[in-house]
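Aim 2 progress update. The chain analyzed this quarter is reproduced below.
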Amino acid sequence: MTHSSALSPESRDAAIATMTGTGGETELDVLVVGGGVVGAGTALDAVTRGLNTGLLEQRDLASGTSSRSSKLIHGGLRYLEMLDFGLVREALQERGLLYTRLAPHLVRPVSFLYPLTHKGWERPYVGAGLALYDAMAMLGKYDMGVPRHRHLFRKQVARIAPDFKADKLTGAIRYYDCQVDDARLVVTIARTAAKHGAHVATRVKVTGFLREGERVVGVRAVDLESGRELEVRARVVVNAAGVWTDEIQEMVGGRGALHVQASKGIHLVVPRDRIRSDAGFITRTETSVLFVIPWGRHWIIGTTDTPWDLDKAHPAASRTDIDYVLAHVNTILREPLDHDDVEGVYAGLRPLLTGESEPTSKISREHTVVTPVPGLVMIAGGKLTTYRVMARDAIDAAGHSLKTTVNITVRDSITDRVPLVGADDFETRSNQRVLLARRSGLHVARIDHLLGRFGGMIDDVLDLIAARRVLGLPLEGAEDYLAAEVVYAVTHEAARHLDDVLTRRTRISIETFDRGVKAAAPAARLMAEVLGWSEERTAEEVDHYLRRVEAERVSQEQRTDREADEARVQAPDIV
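Predicted structure tokens:
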């Protein structure tokens, strides 16, 4: 029984029909609520264990926390200092697995300089920490994949990073972690789940639970695109709603053992030419760590760590947040950055498990799985890097429920041996990059760009271009991307709105100084051809996107979180 990995408009309709029983299928074994990295990972874990699996997401895949991270696949040096050795070891193991086996097309090494400013004690102290970090990675079950750390002296630092202030440094230690486009990772995991038979539908909002006595036996939901009310029956429902966990718990009468505190982290994006350096940088602030991360032709600089109790769908970065990040990065740069250097800003919420009133920067990134009522599993906490472990634990709990109620024995997790779609032919296609450039008429740099986003699935994108040569042209207003990538986002990657394409399938909204304004109309026209939008509907999509950009710009001029939030919510979701 073969399934397509394409998340197309047709596959969404088919998934909804199947999950609601109109497609003739019986109830699901597992229904996952939430389309972030944990939800997508949980659906993949469940379906590869032989369970009939569905996934519902109220907005777009990765539309919350999972598209707004620091984009790092890392062990977390900070947790090492907190003596959280278990979490660091687990995360480093997952880093090696993702880079060498599961997603080599999406995950790539990135080097950082850890600056040393004190003579004597600091070098052996930090060096010992990084030696332990590397040792944990090497002793894991999977290949380490990245080079080991090495000590640098002031002159070497000046050569590698001429724009960092070297006069205050005694040297640095260069170490390696990995990075990923987080939203692409989520879409790729969801597509892998679909390829193995999972039913995936976005823009479907869960509004309540179906109950038989105490037991949860499914959900009530509404298709936000059509307004149609739906019922989806499932033997076990897994809630992976992240910062919305408390709201989902309210639907079962507040019965739940999890309390999630949302912590806001903001990041700035600046052009690569503003900072001359061959490596990223990591330095401390009073409340968290500051990363300066290479990101293609840009740098990502962040982050903050502050409590947030306002609109969860659209966390807003205030001018105070932006000033804070600029002030801290400028302490280590020769040429200071200012607001005019900032191309993009994004804010995300970390779902932190909390009990006491401790500051969010001190709350652990450990995850917890609970079963508050029969038939409902809830998972929260964790971090991007360990999504697969969280998913495995959630389905282990679901398996226990299935065993006790319907006597289904669930097999062990195999996701450490299931490469994500695009991984299989990635090395072959990378070796053929010059040949692919010649055949397609694209520059080799364009082929490299596509390989780093689609891996072995580059063939699908090149087929689109072969069929319609115009799709091989750069997207007007955002020349780093091809027109074909917009079309492919709709036909294969579940994109349904302009926002989905400019913000998550591509990163145009944070990688251009105009925040994607010039690219909005050309991208919408390409989407309209595939989705059958009228001229009015196309104009509405563009207008909504422009209003969103304006609301974000206004929010980023406000001093307080509350004022920023009030400005940002002026542009709500399109559906």
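The longest strand covers residues 260-271. Residues 535-555 form the longest helix (21 residues). These observations will guide the mutagenesis experiments scheduled for the next reporting period.
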